[in-house]
């Protein structure tokens, strides 16, 4: 019955091993062995030769487990012989920290720094901080850091602008380089338009997406749903706090009117934090003084 | 990582002791001693001489704890000397079971029967099943069962129509009679109207409430918010699955138009299950195939 809300962070480390299930089991073990960590998924991909693990827990538990797991991956994976279809630069390629509950982004950035420092100190794997944790503009995007892949890191790290945030200018001989950072959860959100005209979806996508001058955290494009005889504006919401679902939805409705087209509805693909929805319910009901901890399920997670 | 969702039930037993904190502590102990039970609150009221305990947990844990707690209340409370402002018929006066997550009402009714039977068998306190668990129309409402209070139960139980559902036609000499039943969670929902005319709130209340021919599970009335210079339609939603929030809200908006009055917004008082909100978000966004277990927090409660 603590007054303090439990902080929850999601961690989605990517490892460059997607075939050897015994090794993957060992890498996943530090998460599975901690009963306070919710193990949400482990998805090995043999073609990619890569495994994505998704876990949620309190910051301290997650930090301890992910560092231990990186140590195991560092021992088990040799990047000199690793081959797969997915771009990669390290045995543990990337470790994102995502705020889920009662965590600020600043706290996730702090976590990423703690983990980055430990990875260098314990395993001598150099670390770049990326996304919200980035210390320079060229380090924000993972593809930009990863460019050159494992094989190119030796030369890349010697470049003035590619000094790692933790560690020296030489990649780990077998485990390469790892990126660690805080980022917001992505929400995959699609809006259905009652037309078969893909150009209308294209125009509306342009109106809302950042790359064409729209909302700062929206990536969007058109999609044809041939079976249903409709088109979609398909999007990623990269920061649902700054670009809430209802705002994008209402803007698409407003734009669709211009073409005399109805918005039929929408769909959310994959998981979504409650906050991303409760914000929209507040908008539609004009809720006064609503707090997310009034939701019983949230109370149960305290 | 079970596939089975964890079932959660809320239990809100009311005990006829609101002054002696030592006794109350003993009555609450079976809930507090079970770490799997979420202890949401214990509210003793000295004037009422009554304590309301709110707990949430899995059905088996809750059944065991509430039966033990009733045993302790039966020992500690003597209704022959108990006095307070609140109507009461037993040491444990009433035990509602409320479905919170992945529970049907039928399962709550089943729970109430299990608990009712045990209370009679173990402590010889006769039990009436009420609300959704009622076995006859005159047993649906608690006030109807409780009429006559502790002092009148001796005579009442002898009446043909007041044979207890469990136990004999004689109240427990010191602990009286207990009501047990399943019921839906109440949602206290208020809608703000941009007018000072209380009659408009009165007319709209009539349009939506059951007692005047409106929605089956709505109790509503007008309220003046003098400081804010507005009026409210204030209501209880007794079954948010059958009368969802958005439907009531949109109906009030529609009626308010008739008077040229704007709906300013709304407020939810107290706790609300996520399902009661997710239903409305589905409506407003026209969400296709949305399932509540896509919400990360729900995944965490599995």
UniProtKB/TrEMBL annotation, chains A, B:
Broad EC category: transferase
GO molecular function terms listed in the Swiss-Prot or TrEMBL record: folic acid binding; glutamate formimidoyltransferase activity
Keywords, alphabetical: Cytoplasm, Folate-binding, Histidine metabolism, Transferase
Gene Ontology terms: biological process: L-histidine catabolic process to glutamate and formamide; L-histidine catabolic process to glutamate and formate
Annotated EC: 2.1.2.5
Any matching Pfam family: FTCD_N
GO cellular component: cytoplasm
Protein's pathway: Amino-acid degradation; L-histidine degradation into L-glutamate; L-glutamate from N-formimidoyl-L-glutamate (transferase route): step 1/1
Claim: Transferase is one of the keywords in the record: yes
Keyword Chaperone: no
Domain Formiminotransferase N-terminal subdomain: 7-184
Coiled-coil region(s): none
Domain Formiminotransferase C-terminal subdomain: 185-299
Compartment annotation: Cytoplasm
NCBIfam families: FtcD (TIGR02024)
Name of the protein in its database record: glutamate formimidoyltransferase
Organism lineage: Bacteria, Fusobacteriati, Fusobacteriota, Fusobacteriia, Fusobacteriales
């Amino acid at each position: 019955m603590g007054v303090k809300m439990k902080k929850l962070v999601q961690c989605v480390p990517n490892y460059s091993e997607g075939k050897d299930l015994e090794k993957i089991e060992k890498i996943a073990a530090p998460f599975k062995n901690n009963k306070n960590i919710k193990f949400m998924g482990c998805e090995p991909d043999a073609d990619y030769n890569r495994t994505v693990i998704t876990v949620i827990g309190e910051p301290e538990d997650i930090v301890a487990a992910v560092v231990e797991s990186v140590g195991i991956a560092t021992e088990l994976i040799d990047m000199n012989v690793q081959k797969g279809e997915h771009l990669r630069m390290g045995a543990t390629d990337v470790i994102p920290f995502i705020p889920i509950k009662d965590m600020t982004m600043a706290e996730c950035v702090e976590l990423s720094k703690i983990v980055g420092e430990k990875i260098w100190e314990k395993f001598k794997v150099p670390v770049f901080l990326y996304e919200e944790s980035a210390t320079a503009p060229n380090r924000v995007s993972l593809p930009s850091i990863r460019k050159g892949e494992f094989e190119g890191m030796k030369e890349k790290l010697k470049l003035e602008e590619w000094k790692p945030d933790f560690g020296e200018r030489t990649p780990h001989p077998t485990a390469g380089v790892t990126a660690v950072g805080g980022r917001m959860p992505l929400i995959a959100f699609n809006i259905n338009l009652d037309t078969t005209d893909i150009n209308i979806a294209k125009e509306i996508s342009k109106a809302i997406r950042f790359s064409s001058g729209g909302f700062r955290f929206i990536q969007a494009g058109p999609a044809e749903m041939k079976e249903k005889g409709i088109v979609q504006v398909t999007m990623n919401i990269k920061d649902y706090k700054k670009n809430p679902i209802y705002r994008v939805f209402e803007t698409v409705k407003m734009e669709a009117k211009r073409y005399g087209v109805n918005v039929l509805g929408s769909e959310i693909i994959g998981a979504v934090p409650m906050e991303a929805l409760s914000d929209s319910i507040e908008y539609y009901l004009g809720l006064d003084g609503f707090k997310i901890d009034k939701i019983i399920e949230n109370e149960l997670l305290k």
